[in-house]
Structures are given as structure tokens and as C-alpha cells.
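User: Predict the full complex structure for these chains.
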Amino acid sequence: MKEKLFDLKKDNAKRIYIKGSLPGVEVGMKEIELQNGEWIVLYDTSGVYAEEGYEPDIEKGLPKLRERWTKERIERDGGVKTQLWYAKNGIVTPEMEYVAIRESQGITDEAERITPETVRKEIAEGRAILPGNRNHPEAEPMIIGRKFLVKINANIGNSALGSGIAEEVEKALWAVKWGADTVMDLSTGKDIHQTREAILRNTPVPVGTVPIYQALEKVNGVVEDLSWESFRETLLEQCEQGVDYFTIHAGILREHLPHALGRVTGIVSRGGSILAKWMEHHHKENFLYTHFEEICEIIRQYDAAFSLGDGLRPGSLADANDAAQFGELKTLGELARIARKHDVQVIIEGPGHVPMNKIRENMDLQLQYCDEAPFYTLGPLVADIGAGYDHITSAIGGAMIAWYGTAMLCYVTTKEHLALPNRDDVREGVVTYKLAAHAADVAKGHPGAARRDLAMSRARYDFRWRDQFNLSLDSERARKFHLEMIRNSDADYCGMCGPHFCAMRITKSIKKQD
Amino acid sequence: MKEKLFDLKKDNAKRIYIKGSLPGVEVGMKEIELQNGEWIVLYDTSGVYAEEGYEPDIEKGLPKLRERWTKERIERDGGVKTQLWYAKNGIVTPEMEYVAIRESQGITDEAERITPETVRKEIAEGRAILPGNRNHPEAEPMIIGRKFLVKINANIGNSALGSGIAEEVEKALWAVKWGADTVMDLSTGKDIHQTREAILRNTPVPVGTVPIYQALEKVNGVVEDLSWESFRETLLEQCEQGVDYFTIHAGILREHLPHALGRVTGIVSRGGSILAKWMEHHHKENFLYTHFEEICEIIRQYDAAFSLGDGLRPGSLADANDAAQFGELKTLGELARIARKHDVQVIIEGPGHVPMNKIRENMDLQLQYCDEAPFYTLGPLVADIGAGYDHITSAIGGAMIAWYGTAMLCYVTTKEHLALPNRDDVREGVVTYKLAAHAADVAKGHPGAARRDLAMSRARYDFRWRDQFNLSLDSERARKFHLEMIRNSDADYCGMCGPHFCAMRITKSIKKQD
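Assistant: Here is the predicted structure of the two-chain assembly.
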């Protein structure tokens, strides 16, 4: 860390902590002091990195924030119980209180605040999850569900063609700095175990993986050699390390394949294609499906969560909402019910490439088939021809589906379909998705969401430029663009229109004379 | 022009012409030859610049494509008649046949082709406009209406703080290269007349302006000194030069001001604020409203068109869909009816900043109040906190409102709210908006729109990388991103997943063994 990645002072902000009633509940937030003497408190994903004076040590890793809660519970309750178990049994955990406080940022009306009881209820009924592997105590508690703020995930990870451990850790921190609520390590290249270890020990948000990738790497990339036993071993290895949620492609079945293989773009999920090939070769059902209850039992022991993978998501507009996709979605719903029976939390992954007019159906059927389990979508991309701009193609669909009820969006970067994203692509992708998620929060009427927009708009009308920068999702870029042109943070106009053609300046001159 | 801006060969494409039945109708298109021996013909905005061997000469300007039609008509019909007059009288002009052919690109089913009669009918009923000042014969005919492809406009123009004539012409050509269907010259700085002249003579698409800007510049920026007479003179000057459509803020009235001045961000339209100030100072009604029929008569003489400006568009989510905005919209509807009575074509401008859940109401009321006149919106931006990313904030709203029925989108660049866009910002903004417009065309079910996506998806599944680049909205960026990582256009994988984890490659290996 040569440069100081997390510097809230630049935004005239600091990290504050709000105490809860349960022991050790102290929720970190970002408090921005405005030029007009007001202040605003924002949800913040950067964890202890944002504390003044905190010196990151990548070798040592982050402080183990949740360790105390987890250990106490295991001792008291005679073993691991999941957040879902506690919720079902009417118990509010410290994590639940933590997220209730966190989600209430920006809510001024006391009656509208998210209560710990609301959190507990949403988890108990399977409409939200609070992912947190007991071996990843570095992560701050967060919740994914459609009653709460829309979350975003940033995929990182190397491929056989590039990137190293330091670069991937840097991408993870970069993602968290710009607001990623979770990070998925999708490494398929070298040093998969070590890369993940470095990411887990240094990331203050939940981390997800797709364990079939490493399982395949262990059999030298020969799909036919995959087996339940080797997969199980990989899953245990990753559970032990502390992975918070796992993409498991247990819903793709032999019966779905004829539908999928006739498509314009076939199977575009890596996990889906691997399992399809394994099934066709062995003439057997997907081993993740046939061993699903065993997987539940493993995951339950760590209080990790499922992200049931959509191996048959459409990779083109032409394949959207087809029999393969919705057939698998129905199976995912069955699996979600089984997981919950085992007290394991579940979210469901969704598409993909879908034209705007077919997005709503995805959301409606997902809620119906999966008993309202949280939906976690990749975009969807609303066109196929946006290569180089697919962060935007997908942010359009992402904002819409999040408004309709999707709980978490998986970002897509400018490099999608083309290459591995670098650090700058991660930033662009994360900020784009924060924007899409925020737009959905506002449209859904989340009680605190529009407060930041209001503060921003007031700052605009007052020409408080520093506040405008600091309230922007990417304060550094906003500051840079403005100052490149007019080199003055106190001007009552901007470089776009200049002083004589500033509409707000002219409007104010009217009000003065009245 | 040191660099060759328009080089279709890079995309394995060429400019072709499709002949119509009326004299001189030859519609330029871009034909891409694909690696599999197929070809695809696309709508192309770059005009004669894209012809092989064409040598641009900025001093001389473009060939006067439409001059013959215009002159012949004036002689034959004893004066200028507008496209709306011809349409109302059942006459199909060469321009109408031209746009019918142009709009039918990509449509394979003969029964679904857009006919010249459909074009005539849509214009006659005011649901579409075919803007083309008789003194801008350089522009290729194009149509704006919700039965047709969604169009996009790129704003260019200097401000008092920067840019020169050569730079603005370059931005215009750059906009057209990336697909802008119209260009608006919003210059408010130096050399307004000369900048516009250079743009008009060298731009193959319709050009719009906001004449109040130059009128204000002529009275040295003193709003109080504006008058109907000086505005009229400016309008005539711009009509003579060949401006194709004019933003006229005739709908902002004294009765709307109390609503507007109490808003969070007041009036954010430059034209709107100027007229509000003028009205308040003189205690008189907006002179553009009181002289509206005279404006119609001037514009009619050139067959230019109205873009009725929304001086009271909301500049923040908090102000969206308020009494000021919808009050003005109603007045714009009245004015549209008056303009049509004078045989002048009209489009209506729309917001602005609007949360996703309030977008639909904008479209519905616009159709209702304005008798289905084409809607032309700026975004809308679905959040206020995206500074530096407002091309995206607004593309989300833009795609949605275009799907709902908006006929043309005005792009917003990354520099919105901060600074004047440069050439690269124009490119990013135009491509982003082409994407939003295209997504809407697909969602609306335009018969030819999804054909390009299908060709792209097939190219993806076949690993025809050159075709993927050439079919992308920004072929240069797609090519660059891919080749930076793997330096090979013939690989059957990409740098994102690498060879062993390419889902499509694995899927194909399944199909082969079957």
C-alpha cells in the first residue's frame, strides 16, 4: 500500500461508530461534514480501513470483528447455529442488530427505522440473508433482501491469462473503497488457495466463490474427472478458510440440457457448462443436485450461505426467458426449500442477457418459484451489441430489476465479453452499479435513500462545490472534472455553461429582487 | 482532418446506397461483411464521409444532397411548403421515401417494412417529424417518431470558458461518426454565428439550436434587454443559415413561476431561467408565447421544426413531476396544436431528473397533453449523486422512457453538471445513448432492431472475434480491449475466462460428442 487508498479526509468526512444495545455492536459509518454546517451519515463498506490512522498490514490481515460473537454462541449453544436458525427461533443476534442500524442510515423519521425485529423476521421467512462464515470474522455484518438497501457485488479473481495475488487483493480493496457490498473471488488461474486466503483476511465485506472452479483446477481442468468427493474436499477447504457464500450450480439437470444446447449461445455460465459436460459424459444427474443435502450440512457447520447458481442463464437476448432458464429456476426454488429446512440461508442467481420488456417476468417468476428468496442478478444486459460498454448495458437492466425487487446486483465491467478487468475497470464497474442500486432504492421508496440526493441537490443550488464532490458516488472523479476546467471550488457556476448562462445563478437573481 | 475519422474498412464494411422510386432517392447505409460469408446492413449517420475515397473539405462543406428536391418543390408549388403540409395533403415527398427505406434496415420480413405511406401518415398526424431546413441541404433525411427507431441527439457548442470553431466542428463529426442522429449547437461563447455556419456546412444530420442564447449574447448577456424584435432577428439569421430545429421556450408562463421558484433546484434550463427573469423584470408574459404565431410563420418559411423547450424541467429528483413541470407541459401541448395549424412540425422536450418510479407518468401525460407529438427527453437522470457518471445515470432513465414511447433522447455526457465535454466525452456519451436507444428499439419490438444482436450473439458463439468487434456499437474500443489481453483475433476464448474456463467452448465440446 504505497498510496493511501482510504482517505476520508479528502471528502471532509470521517468514520464514526454507532453503538447498539447488544455487546460489541458498533456500526461503522461515513460522516460527511457539509459546507453549510450540516452533516450526513452514509452507509460505508470500507471497514476499519477508513479509520483515521489505521495502518493496513496485508500480511497480518484485518481485526477479527465478529470473532467474539461467534465463539460465545458456539460455546453457549453447543455448536454452530446459523443466523437462520436464530431467526427462526425468535432470537435477535448482534449481527441482526448491527445490520438494522446500518440499514437505517439516512432515515430521519424514527417510525421508519429498520428494527432488529424486522431483520430477524425477514431472515426467518427466507426473504433476506445475513451471510457470514464463522471463519471470516473480518467481515462486517450486512444483509441482502428486498426490504433493505440494494447491494452490489464485485467479481475479482485471476484467469489463466493473467494477474497475481497482490493485484487481486488490491482489486478487492479498490472494490470495497468504491462501495462493493460483497466481493466474489472467481479465480481460475494460479495460486487459487493463496489468492483467496489473502482476499479473505483483508476484506471487510462478505466474500463469495464458485468452488467448482477450484475443484476443476485440482483435476487439471479435465471436466470428466470431477467427482463429488473432490468437490466436497474443495468445499470444505473453502469453508474452513471463511468463504461467506458459495455459488453452487445444483439446479442444472439432465432434463434441461436439450433446451440449452439448441440455443443461440448455448450455456454461458462457466459452472453450468462444466456440469453439463460432466452429466453428458457420465450419463448421470448433476452430482451437486444428488448430494445437495450433504452440501447443506457442510455449509451449515460454518454458517455460510448458498447462492444457487443459474447455470442456464441466457447469454443473448435471443435466449432470454426460455424453457432452459425457467426450468432451472424452478429447480432452484426446490433446492432453496431444502436448504432452508437445513437452516441454511439462500439467495438465487439470475440472468444474464434480457431485453427490457422481458425483465419483469424474471422477477415475478423468481419470487413465485423460490418463495421470495433474495434474487441476485448479473445485470441483466439489455442488448448484445455493447461490447466495451457492458457496464452500462447491464446497469440499465440492473437498475430496473432492482426496482422490481432484486436484492443484490452483480456488477459487470467495461471488459465483459472481452478481457479481465483491471483496477480502474473495477472502480468504474462498482460506481456504475452503486448508481443503479441507489436509483432502485430511491424508486422503491426506501425511506433514507433519497436523502443523499436531496443534500446533493441543495448543494448544487447553493454552488457548494466541495459538498457536491463529497456527496457524489465517486468524489474523486467529480472533483477532477470540475477543477480541470475552472480551477475554483468557490465559483457560482461551472465550466459547462459559464457564468452568464448558469440557469441556477439566473434563477437566484430573480428571487433576490422579489 | 489529419487522421481519417471515417474508415469503414476497419470494420470490414463499406457504404452502400439503396435506390428508391422517386428521383434522386439513394439511401446510404453501412454494409458489414461477416467472417461467415453473411452480411448485415445498418443505419448509418456518417453520410458521405463514410464513402471510400471521399476527401472532406471543411472550407467547402458537404455536397448539397437535398437541394434538388427543395428547389424543384418551391418552383412547382409556388413557395415553401413544409413536410407537414405535403403529408396532410396526401403527398409522399422524396424525403419520406428516403426515411422509409432508412428505417427498414434490418427488417427481413417484407410485410414488416416501413412504407413511405406510413411515414406520411405519422407526419400528417403529428406523431413524427422529418426535420430539414431548406437551407441545410447537406443533411440526410431522418425521421423522429415513436413508430420509428429511437434517435439520439448530441449537444456540442462552446461556452464562455472554452473551445473554438475547429474543435466544435470536430466534435460534430465525432458525434456523427459514433451515431448521433442530430446535433445541437448550444454555443454561448465566442463566434456563435461562425461556429454554427461551420457546423451546418459540414454536418450530414439535422442541426438544432436554442436561438435565445445568441439573442442574449447580442444584448451583451443582459437578460432585461432582450426583446421580441432582437429575438426575431436572431431566429431569421439562424433560419437563413439552415438550422433544422429550434428549441423555443414558449411554454414557460408567468403563472408557472411561483411553482418553480420554490423548488429545491429552481429553474435549471438556461432558456427557462432567462425567460423567467425577463418576465419578472418586465412584468409581462413570455414574448415567445405572445408572439408564437409569428414564430410559426417564420419557421414555416424554411421548413424548419419546433422543439418546444421544457424551461421548467426538474433539476433534481425532489422537483420531478411537480406542478411547475406539468403546468408547462400542458402549455406546450397548446402550442403544439397551434404550430400544426401553421403546418409546422413539432417535438416536445422533456426532463431532466426523475426517479425511475415517476418516469412512466411523464410519458403518459406528454402523449395526452401534446396529442402524441414526439417526445424528446434529456435522460432522464434517475439519481442526483452520479456526478462524473451522469451519462449512465441518464442512460438508465433514457432507455426506460424510450421504451415507453420517447422518440429521441438527448445525450448527457460524463461531464454533465461539471464541465464542457471534450471529443472523448462526446464519443462516450453518444455510444452510451446509442445503446439506450437500441435497447428501447428491441424492447418495443421494432422489427429490425434485434437482428444486429442476433448476428452478434452468433458471432460470439462461433468465436468470430472480428465480427464481434465490427458489430459492436464502438468497434474500436471492443477490438482494443480484446487484443490488449490476448493479441489474437482467432482464439476460441477470451482473456476474461481463459481457454479452460470458457463456457461456450465447453458447451460446444458437448455438442460435438453427441
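The longest strand of chain B covers residues 26-33.
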